[in-house]
Design brief:
single chain, Arc Repressor Mutant, subunit A, 2 domains, globular
């Protein structure tokens, strides 16, 4: 069933139709939010995006363009969050009573290979998050959601060639950054 048909059913009061749209699009929205704001708030912003979409579904003029419409809401939600003056970052030490900056918290010990893998993933995600926004966005969507170039192009309103160029640029930047820091 198409997104457009699901939108029409949701507007007719069938809640399962919107649930199916959420299942289809939640991962992409989360990846898009992650690309825009980083790991910290991505899931919360994805939830906010889906809530805004549900509340504003009646404003969608072309139900068959649900995906791009939803991604537009995600971008605006992220921008609102980034602009918010109320947003504050709470240091971890505040969350743990009597935890100083030099205190190491107990956590299950990881085997050496697991620690190496965790460190590599952290380094990779740090570099991905440092990419220019247009590159970061396509990397997150392409690799998180296994979306085709054509789908990405439609979603972002650009050509598949532009998606290819952005992914190529992102991969080159990552190779340079990760290669130079590995030496």
């Amino acid at each position: 069933m198409s997104d457009g048909e699901l939108v029409r059913q949701a507007l007719a009061g069938r809640s399962q139709a919107f649930e199916e749209l959420v299942r289809r699009w939640a991962g992409r929205v989360t990846a898009l939010c992650h690309a825009r704001v980083g790991r910290a708030g991505a899931e919360d912003l994805a939830q906010e995006t889906l809530l805004r979409a549900y509340r504003g579904l009646r404003t969608l003029v072309e139900p068959d363009k649900f995906g791009p419409w939803l991604c537009g809401i995600a971008v605006r939600t992220c921008l609102d969050w980034l602009k918010s003056r109320d947003r504050t970052q709470v240091p971890f030490s505040v969350l743990v009573p009597n935890a100083g900056a030099d205190q190491v918290l107990d956590r299950p010990s990881l085997a050496e290979p697991e620690l190496d893998r965790e460190d590599e993933l952290h380094r990779l995600m740090t570099e991905v998050e440092a990419l220019p926004e247009e590159c970061r966005e396509v990397v997150m969507l392409y690799y998180y959601q296994d979306v085709t170039y054509r789908d990405l192009a439609q979603l972002l309103g650009v050509s598949p060639a532009t998606i290819n160029a952005r992914l190529t640029r992102a991969r080159t930047l990552l190779r340079e950054r990760l290669g130079s820091s590995a030496r």
